[in-house]
Amino acid sequence: MTSPFNRRARLALADPRLQQALQGGTGRFGEMRLKAFESAAAPLALRAKAREIRRRTFDDIGRHLDTLLANLRRSGVEVHAAPDAEAARRIIAGICRRSGAKLAVKSKSMASEEIHLNGALEKAGVRPVETDLGEWILQLAGETPSHLVAPALHKTLDQVVDLFRRKVDPGAGRDPEALTALARRALRQEFLTAEVGISGVNFAIAETGTLCLVTNEGNGRLVTTLPRVHIALMGFEKVVPTVEEALTLLAVLPRSGTGQKITSYFTMVSGPRRPGEADGPEEMHLVLLDNGRSRHLGGPFQEAFHCIRCGACQNACPVFQTVGGHAYDSVYGGPIGAILSPMFRGLEAAGEPAAASSLCGACQEACPVLVDIPRMLIEMRGARVAARTVPRAEALAFRAAAWAMRRPALWEFSFRALAQLGRLLPRAGRLGWLPGAAGAWAKGRELPLPARRSFRDRWRERQRGRRPAPVSSPAAQERTPEEMVERLRRQAALGHGLAHGHIASPPDVLPEVDIPDPAARFQQELEAVGGKVFRPASSEEAKAHILDLAGRWPGRPVAVSGGLPLPAGEWLREAGFEVLPPSDAGDGRERLAAAGLGVTGCAWAAAETGTLVLPSGGGSPRLHSLLPEAHLALVREEDVVPHLSALGPRLRERIAREGPSCVSLITGPSRSADIALTLIRGVHGPREVFALLLPRGLA
Amino acid sequence: MTDSAETPTFSLGEPREDAPRRVILFATCLVDHFFPGVGEASVYLLEKSGAEVDFPEGLTCCGLPHFNNGFRGEARKVLEPQLALLEGDAPIVVPSGSCGWMLRCVLPTLFPDDPWKRERAERAASRVLELSQYLGRYAPGEPSVRLPGKTVYHDSCHLLRGLGEREAPRRLLGLAAERREELPGCDRCCGFGGSFAVKYPEISCAMLEQKLQAAEGAGADWLVAADAGCMLQIGGGLARRGSRVRLLHLAQALAGPGAPGWPGEPEGQKA
Question: CATH number, domain at A531?
Answer without folding.
Answer: 3.40.50.10420
